[in-house]
Specification:
By secondary structure, the protein is α+β, with helices and mostly antiparallel strands. The chain contains 15 helices and 16 strands. Helix 5 crosses helix 9. Strand 3 and strand 4 form a beta hairpin. The chain binds histidyl-adenosine monophosphate. Histidyl-adenosine monophosphate binds next to strand 6, strand 10, strand 11 and helix 11.
Length: 420
Amino acid sequence: MIKIPRGTQDILPEDSAKWRYIENKLDGLMELYNYKEIRTPIFESTELFARGVGDSTDVVQKEMYTFKDKGERSLTLRPEGTAAVVRSYIEHKMQGNPNQPVKLYYNGPMFRYERKQKGRYRQFNQFGVEAIGVENPSMDAEVLAMVMHIYESFGLKHLKLVINSIGDSESRKEYNDTLVKHFEPVIDTFCSDCQSRLHTNPMRILDCKVDKDKEAVKNALRITDYLNDESKTYYEEVKKHLDVLNISYVEDPNLVRGLDYYTHTAFELMMDNPNYDGAITTLCGGGRYNGLLQLLGGPEETGIGFALSIERLLLALEEESISLDVEEELDLFIVTMGQEADNYAVKLLNKLRKNNIKVDKDYLNRKIKGQMKQANRLNANYTIVIGDQELENNAINVKDMVTGESEKIQLDQLVNYFIK
Ligand code: HAM
């Protein structure tokens, strides 16, 4: 038997209703914040991610699904959305749009070859936003407010917003040089990933899961001590806006994020549920990326955004025992007795559906009792039973399944009755 690939999942009808509910709600929230949807391809040039996300990141080094097409081009299934959105922004010269900043959102599958875990998949669905063409602390705060609004609108309460500033490129350079000097003497005792990160991306040593308890990690100087005046002021302003908006947060100077493009504000939203026993607690992550557009050959614009996976949102809802209101129902179920009634029902179904009435009937020659059970299973609001007598008399009882009451009407007026 051929099985589903590891790290992927089928979303079956009982769950896809939840997905649709979430996606519709997110679309609605995006309207409130005036973000417009963008759809980019599932695969892109490998070069886009190597350059945009960063050659030394785990995503690029270990996790990409890369392949050559028949024209020998190296392509990659997108591991994230930001690089692709920025590519599209540059390609379509969106800096010239009259509506600035350009506020975009996306929702679709991403692919990373990661170890499968609760909340971690190889194909997962990211919903993300990018606000491009704006460098203003109030925009950073707005994006953070949006993150909180999204999760709170689903009724989630056990949430922890963690923020940091990783400064501009000047602050980062100075800090990275210090970290190299700090870790060099002890790097032999660190994991092989950290050893290779030392010269390519030393900040990532700080959030290594393997070496997190090492003394050298604990007593390393913090990026916040290396922020230049401009970066410090920017960060202070963001925090001031958060305070005004009454958004609570925790600062973590070790939050450096796994993708290379971040500058200034970086953040993650974590599950903060004392009863949760899974290893994955990050629900959503994002930050500002001031150099990314230029790195990809674009204009001197800056951006900020975040992404969350719907899988982890569902996990958080499950952990807080929040059920979504996704009960599906039918307007009418038609029970038939005999071939003639069934033939009549086929035509009736067709007319009702063309008038936007949600309706179904039996196809398995069930007995009346079985058909009624099916009507209940499908959550039908009304049922009718058509037999020879109903056809002959042009009369039908419409039964309200909630109150149990029936109303007698003319059979040939049924469509009008339901339209009304
Ligand atoms: P990221 O932190 O790599 O950032 O991913 C963002 C979110 O995607 C995570 O917080 C998590 O909800 C979800 N996610 C990531 N990997 C997996 C996985 N294997 N299984 C399930 N969910 C996963 C980014 O991707 C950035 N592009 C976010 C961003 C947008 N930054 C600025 N703009």
